[in-house]
Every structure is written in C-alpha cells, then in structure tokens.
Specification:
- By secondary structure, the protein is an alpha+beta fold.
- The protein has 14 helices and 18 strands.
- The chain has helices at about 20, 30-45, 90-105, 115-120, 130-135, 155-170, 200-215, 215-220, 225-230, 235-245, 285-300, 305-320, 365-375, 440-450; strands spanning about 5-10, 50-55, 65, 70-75, 80-90, 110, 145-150, 175-180, 250-260, 265-275, 340-345, 350-355, 390-400, 405, 415-420, 425-430, 460-465, 465-469.
- Strands 7-2-8-1-10-9 form a 6-stranded mixed sheet, sandwiched between helices. It has a 4-stranded antiparallel sheet with strand order 12-11-13-18, covered by helices on one side.
- It is globular.
Amino acid sequence: MGELVMAAIVPHPPVMVEEVGRGEELRVQATRDSMKTLAGNLAQLQPDTLVVITPHGALFSDAITMPAQDTLAGDLGRFRAPQVRLEYERDRELAELLYRCAWERNIPTHHLEPDLARRYGISPQLDHGIVAPLSFFRHLEPKPRLLQVNMGLFGRERLYEFGIAMQEAIKQSSRRVAVIASSDLSHRVTPDAPAGYDPRGQEFDLALKGLLEAFDVPGILAIPEELREAAGECGYRAIVMALGALDGYEVDHRVLSYEAPFGVGYLVARFIPGSPAEKRKLLDWLLQERQARRAARKQAESPVVQLARQSLEHYYDTGKMLRDTEIKLPPDLPPRAGVFVSLKKDGQLRGCIGTTALTTPSLRDEIIANALKAALEDPRFEPVERDELDELTISVDVLGQPEPVAGLADLDPQQYGVIVSSGGKRGLLLPALEGVNTAEQQVEICRRKAGIGPREPVKLERFTVTRFT
C-alpha cells in the first residue's frame, strides 16, 4: 500500500534559482533557505514519486489534465539559464490510478497525450512552475519519478475532492509520494509589483499565511473570491488540491518562510500527515457550505439579476423565451439603455454578451434576451448546461448614454466604460475590469477587439455603468 509522506507549498520565481538570479537571488534568500530545508526533508523521506500541481501548465475550465509522455523534461531557457534542465520518468502507474479515482468521483480528468497537446498548441516541456522549485530537489537519491498535474479551474469543493482522489490513488499504489503545490501568492503586494498594486494583495497573503500556520483548512477554503481576485494570486487552487490530499489526517504543519521583495508573495510550507482523524474529513462540510452560499447568493440578488436568472431557468426548462414575470424592475432605471449580462462560475467568466443601445421593445426584454445570449452565444465558451445554472454568479450592467470625449485625459477605467470607433469599426469595454488600470489599456484593448490599427484615428466616447448583482 502506498503512502503520502509529505505535502508542500512552494513558490516558483525563476529568480530564486542561482543560474537565473545572477545575484538577484540574494533578495529571496529566505525562500532559498526554506527550499533547501524542504530538500533535506525530502532526502530523509525518500519519496518514490513527486506529484507537482502547477498553475502554469495547460489550464482548462472543464478538466484537470496530466501530460502523458513517458519522459517529462524542461529547462529555464526562457530565463537565460538553459543549463538548468530537469528530466524525470513519468509515474504511469500512479497517473492511471489517479485518473480512475478522479472519474469515480465525477471529476473530469484526462491524460494529455502528445498528439492532443500538439493540437492545442501546448508545449510538452515542463513549465517554470515545476522546473524552478524542483531545481532545488534535483540531487535527490534515489531519483524519484514525477507526475505533473495541471491545475484545474474548478470550484474549491471539486478541487479539494480531487485532492481526496489523489490520496486514494496514492494508497492504492505501491509508491511513497510527496505532493507539491507550486504557488506564488499575490502579484500585487507593493506599489512596484509587476501586476500593479492593490492593498488587498498583502491582506490576502497575510490571511493565507496565518491560516496555514494554524492549519485552518476550513478558513483557507472560505477565503472570499473577491479577495483572491483583487490579490491577483496564481496558485490558490493548487494549494486547495494539495490540502485535499491531507483530508482526514492530523498534520504536522509548518510555514517555513514568507517574503515579497519583488511585490509577489513567496511562501514555503510543509505538511507531514500523521494519524487518521475523523474530524479532519471536510468534504461533507464543504458541500453543505456550497449549498448555503448558493442560497445566500440567490437571496441577495437584486430584481434586475433575478430577472436575468429567471430568463435562463425558464428557457432551460421550457425551451422558450420568458414572456410573463412578476419581477418588477427599479422605477429609476432608464426606459431605453444598453445592457450587458455577465455570467461567472467558480470565479471564472462563463459568458458575457451585451448591447450598447436598446435592440428590443423594452429594457426588461433586453435583459431577458442578453442573459440568454450570454449563456448560449458567447463564442469564447461552450453553451452553459442546465446543471450549471445554480453555480452561476450573474451581474447585469445597465449602460448610461455615451458621450464624446476629447482624449485619454477624459477617461477613467474605474469610473467609465469606453467606446472606440473608426469608420464602421467599433470596440467597447466596460469599466472596472480586473487588470485594466489605465485609459491607454482601455483604448488599446478596444482597438484590438474592433480590428482598428494602432495609428488609425479614432472617435472616443465614454459611458457610465450601473452594475446590479
């Protein structure tokens, strides 16, 4: 019978690797020291296999994937250090067991065969989320096998349950296994951070650090989505997956270090499972919490959003567009306005379609029609399925009347949406979008969406938005 010998959280900045940092690695010396401590722990435990969950592999919204080539290899050539190259034998036995255990729990999981990867344009090479941290473990003897797991974009309950499936697969195997979550924290901790500054970045990092120090798994799983989004983190889901592998056990836990010298949070932690503990089995509690969140979300929805949701439910139940409803819209809404309806699932966009001016007889009909289009006609996504409706978070943006502006100085990406037009080409962007922090970015994105060249003269218009949730 196999055994989970350790789980760990590691950061993945290439700069922490000496060959990449070339002196800059000294600014993350606390992280480097902790990684060396982890390497010592692994040397003592002698795992047969390292399972590494990476946020920088192939990401899918509807599946967790595991690259299926027999040899897994990669280097840091993108970071001017091609000599830092790792190569591992893939653990085919554990991969097959994990595949079966995940599907038994109805968690879509796929072997990412080389032909399929090529079809999607996915590199077969190990990404830096694996190579950078594993470079600290390259001298382990005997050399372990590797199983790469690409982080899924599922909700936290399903990701945690995947970790439980991983625990089951390990037990059914003949391996001693260490599970490693590759995860940088907030990318917005300081004003010079690469993704821009947000004061909630440090709030997220310190909250997660404190919860890990207390091994408060329910608290970690309850971190609000809006806080994670504001922080701009890249590995929370990987952490949740790794924590699932520890479900039902007492755990010897320790945060080894945390620092953010480049405006990105780097945390190193290790977890050693001990004796079984019924009180540590959290899946049923998680599912109950999800039901409670669904109910609370629906209860708090404004009449505008209730109308959009009712439109979807009516269509999926009858195949017909909603005509009659008792829902009353707020009387102060304009009788004629453009409407955008956005659908999110597990914090990820699931569909968004709108109109800049009324295209139906009334604002009510516009909301009903655009809700259906967001679910069924957004070309970026597969149509929403009936069983997804309860999982959706819906927002409705009612647009104010566009007004012309003279230039970028009259725009504010947090306050105003923008319309950029040239001839018959027209691009629109809503305000207060994550990652859009300047008027220049707003206009550039609109140009790209509309196919307007960077030097073509344009007309700029701005508009306000009333957002209903």
